[in-house]
Amino acid sequence: MTAKTRAEKMEETRIKLIKAGRKAFAEKGYAEASMDELTASAGLTRGALYHNFGDKRGLLAAVVDEIDSAMAQQAKDAGDAAGGGWNGLMAEGRTYIELALDPEIQRIVLRDGPAFLGDPSQWPSQNRCLQATIATLTELADQGAIKPVDIEALARLLNGVALNAALWVAASDDPKDTLGKAIAAFECLAAGVLVTPNAN
């Protein structure tokens, strides 16, 4: 019983820190966010942050994982709503790129994330997206809907195009204008793998 209570308290502390970190990183950016202010806003000590995440960078990684995972879920929901298959895959890509218009996502995931955590393709959340894309492409290949090409290579490149399109939108002086160009280019490039233009 005591172990469970301790585990629950630890999880509660972790959730508080992620929430406080998310707010601070969104408002001030990673570099300007103060660990003392951040932990105080959560009613915790800097020691709690070190214990749970190692350091501020570890907290950023947890916050990015939470947001990027939510982005992936929104994209998956859009894909499911589009009926899955190729149309679903394109809906997922479009949705992920569109989310780059969100100021919190722009700052935390698409600017500070790569700047302080390195290559996004190495993030756990991006790897989960990759596995999902591989699964969809494998089904499409089995149906003969896409050209014979290495599935992992194709999945990595398609996901990379969507991610880089989102990064471009986030860094653009006119994100809304850039969004249309990015989505059109993403769909044009992706369509090259189809056996027929209207494959589903």
Write the topology of this structure.
Blueprint: H1 2-28, H2 35-41, H3 46-53, H4 56-81, H5 85-98, H6 103-117, H7 124-142, H8 151-171, H9 175-191
Helix pairs in contact: 1-3, 1-4, 1-6, 3-4, 4-5, 4-6, 4-7, 5-8, 5-9, 6-8, 7-8, 8-9
Give me some keywords for this one.
HTH_TetR; HTH-type_TetR-like_transc_reg; 77% helix; single chain; mainly alpha; elongated; 2 domains; 200 residues; TetR/AcrR family transcriptional regulator; Tetracycline Repressor, domain 2; Rv0078-like_C; DNA-binding
Look up the CATH topology of the largest domain: Tetracycline Repressor, domain 2
Provide mean pLDDT, rounded.
92
- What are the low-pLDDT stretches, counting only 5+ consecutive residues below 50? none
Structural class: mainly alpha
**What is the CATH class name of the largest domain?**
Mainly Alpha
Shape: elongated
Q: Helical proportion?
A: over 70%
The overall strand count is 0
Q: What's the Cα radius of gyration?
A: 19 Å
Distance between the termini: 52 Å
Topology order in helix (H) and strand (E) letters: HHHHHHHHH
- Biggest beta sheet attributes: none
Q: What number of domains?
A: 2
CATH architecture designation of the largest domain: Orthogonal Bundle
Keywords: DNA-binding
Protein name: TetR/AcrR family transcriptional regulator
Pfam families: TetR_C_41 (PF21351), TetR_N (PF00440)
Domain HTH tetR-type: 11-71
Descriptive report:
- The protein has nine helices and no strands.
- The protein is 77% helix and 0% strand.
- The protein is elongated and about 60 Å long.
- It starts with a helix and ends in a 9-residue tail after the last helix.
- The chain is mainly alpha-helical and 200 residues long.
- The protein has two domains: 54 residues, Arc Repressor Mutant, subunit A (Orthogonal Bundle); 136 residues, Tetracycline Repressor, domain 2 (Orthogonal Bundle).
- The mean pLDDT is 92.
- InterPro entries: Homeodomain-like_sf, HTH-type_TetR-like_transc_reg, HTH_TetR, Rv0078-like_C.
- Keywords: DNA-binding.
- Pfam families: TetR_C_41, TetR_N.
